[in-house]
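As a warm-up, study this chain.
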Amino acid sequence: MAGIPQKKTWRFRCEICGQPVGFWDESDHRRTAHPELMAVYRQIGQRYLVRYFPLAMLALVFAVVSVIIHDWWWRLGLLLGLYSMFAILIVFGVFAWKKEKPVQLDIEVACPVCDRKVTKKELRPHLSEVHAEIYRLMKRTFWLLGPTLYGFLIYLLVLIGLIILDVFGKSFLAYALLLLFGPLFAWVTILAVVGVYMERRYLRPARKAWQVLRPPSP
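Now compare it with the structure written out below.
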C-alpha cells in the first residue's frame, strides 16, 4: 500500500555473525564489526606467506622435479611431494583454526530459530536448552556429514596414491577422473539437499512457531 514504508530485506548475510548486510557492504561490515577477527586473519596470512607457503611450494617443486628426472623412483618422489604438500596445508589449517577459534567464540550471532543474540560459545547451550529438537537434528546432521567429509579426504588421498603408483594399470586412468570427482560431486549434492531439507522442513516452521509464541516486542 502507498504511504506504508516497506521493510528492507537483504539477500546476503555476514558469514561471520550472520547479520543481514548488502552485497557491497559486506567488506566494510567485516572491518568495522569484527576488527579483532580481521587482525587475526592478517596474522594468519602473514604466517602462511612466511612459513607454510614456501614449504608447500618446496614440496610441489620436489614432486615436479621427480617427474622431470623420470628415474625409477619418480613415482615415489611425486607421491611424497604431493603428500608432503597436503600435510603442510593441513598443519596450516590446524594452526589457523587454533588462532581463530578463541576470537570466533566471542562473536555475537543470531540464533537460527528465535534470532536471540548470543555469542558463538553460548549458541550450543542455548539451542540445547531452548530449541532441543532443532539442536538434536543439527547434531545428527553434523555426525552424518562430518565423518563422511573426512572419509572422502582419506579416500581421495589413497586413490591419488594408487593412480600415481600405477597399481591398477593404464586402463584404470579412463575412470580416474570419475572416481576422483564423482564422490565429491555426490557429497556436495547431498550437503545441499540436506541443507535445503533442514531449512524448509524444520528451521522455517520452528521460526514461525516461535514468532507466534513469542512475538517480537514493538
